[in-house]
Amino acid sequence: MMTTLFIWSLAGALFGALFGGLYQVLTVLGLAGWQPLVIAAAAAAMTTSAFYSAMPVALMGAMAGILASIGYLIVSGQSVELLWIAGTAGAGGILAGVFYAWMITGGGRPLAETLTGLIAGVLAGGIMAFVFASFGIRFSMFVLSAGVVALVGTFFQVSERWLVARSARWFPGVLSAPVVAGLIAALVGASVWIIGGTTSTMLSSNAQDSANQILGAVQPGFLGGMLGGAVTGVVLQILGFRPEQPH
Hints:
There is one protein chain. Helix content is 85%, strand content 0%. By secondary structure, the chain is an all-alpha fold. The chain has helices at residues 2-28, 34-53, 55-76, 82-103, 109-135, 141-167, 173-204, 207-238. Helix 3 packs across helix 4 and helix 7 runs antiparallel to helix 8. The two termini are 22 Å apart. The protein has 8 helices and no strands.
């Protein structure tokens, strides 16, 4: 029980901090309503599940995404387009994943778990957005992060017993690593674009307020995610769902 509590608390805290920061950045860039909630939840869930299931592949994809984004910025100069930088980073991640799959033989489970995390994030974000919009509830980042982490953790853990196990057989090992690395790299490229857009917003007006809003969302997201992860982990442990070993 203590091991489960530690694992879920740590995973929830990291998820919540990433979710809170992404949510506030998207809000600063002008997204509203369900959009920042669903996008931030999906991105955070996909990233967390990728690092959980295949950390070496995810790290290689992140490194490739950073290098490809830097190369894009050098070539493009001041013109930074989201689709182009994300596509360039994603292509670099795919190449890195192909190299990894050539060097180390693996199965399709990392891709299955990453896609399951993405689906869980979209579902959790959509449900939270629908509930808040339907009842007109005003929420804090602490409550929002705890709720999203709890929903994503529940969806992921429950579906892992049948969805991941079955879909892993559909994906060949040679495809799994490139796709996971490409997704992480594309997310890195999109993050670089977001940072560039946020920087432009800050330079134009309300620089200090924007920075404080983004940084201020990380701490309650971290604490809310830790609480949501801990409670969900204990409940699922009691119900017989236990964390799987990373692959």
